[in-house]
Amino acid sequence: MQGPAKKLPTLVTRQVAINELVPAPYNPRSITPMALKGLEESVTQFGLVEPIIWNEKTGHVVGGHQRLEVLKHMGVASTEVVVVDLNEDQERALNLTLNNDALMGTFNEGVSELLASIKENFPAELYDTLQFGEIYFPGKTLEFVPGADIDYGLAGTDDSQLGLVEGDGGPGQNEVYTLRLILSGDQRAELVEMVRWLAAKYGITAPTDVIFRAVRDAYNYHRATTDG
Question: HSE (CB half, 13 Å, CA atoms) of 208?
Fold first, then answer.
């Protein structure tokens, strides 16, 4: 049997001027320009359906830093916020809780049907701007995206070695594709270790070239040792 229902704190909202909303200096989240563009498109299409959370005691934004940036860019003068009254330790704990992916659940395979429906009924440009193609779920293991940089995100590797710059389409330029591998934490660590070992073996520094060379060698070996 369930215990007695817990009483939730009363939700307080207020209209606050944008210039009074101070970003928390410790906020652990950042956002790429492309993702920020997608977020702005979301606010334009659907409105600010998730209000900014503001701590009255410190003046800090606790949740919604990226949405605040969008509102500033859109020239909004004020917005309705959820008001909390927390000390600094509580504020930091709430901030981290709101940013904790581990508490948000994960997509299951059912999201593929939702994506297919949206892709069929929404303009392609809107689908891309909202970055629905960046949603990952069980069963989605490889994605090829024309005309993008290649980036395997290998931790500890020099950033200059992580990608191939997209060609300008001139003579002799190859079209560039992104190959994205969806891995667990353990698999990712194993992949990084294998790529570094192979890099030393092949004398190649670019991770993309290492992986391509290893896959090609494995393919050639198995084709040579099996029938057909």
Answer: 17
Compute the distance between CA of residue 104 and CA of residue 122 in angstroms, rounded to an integer. 26
190 with 135, same domain: the answer is no
Per-residue model confidence (pLDDT) at position 17: 97
Instruction: Please report, for the domain that includes residue 65, its CATH number.
Output: 3.90.1530.10
Same domain for 58 and 27: yes
Q: What is the DSSP letter of 101?
A: G
Q: How confident is the model at residue 91 (pLDDT cuts 50, 70, 90)?
A: very high
Residue 21 within any structural domain of the chain: yes
Say yes or no to pLDDT of 141 above 60: no
Find out whether 85 and 56 touch, Cβ atoms under 8 Å.
yes
Residue type at 79 in one-letter notation: T
CA dist., res. 16 & res. 20, Å (int): 7
Element (H, E) at 196: helix 185-202
- Residue 76 banded pLDDT, cuts 50, 70, 90: very high
Residues 189, 162 share a domain: yes
The pLDDT of residue 157 is 41
8 Å CB contact between 50 and 111: no
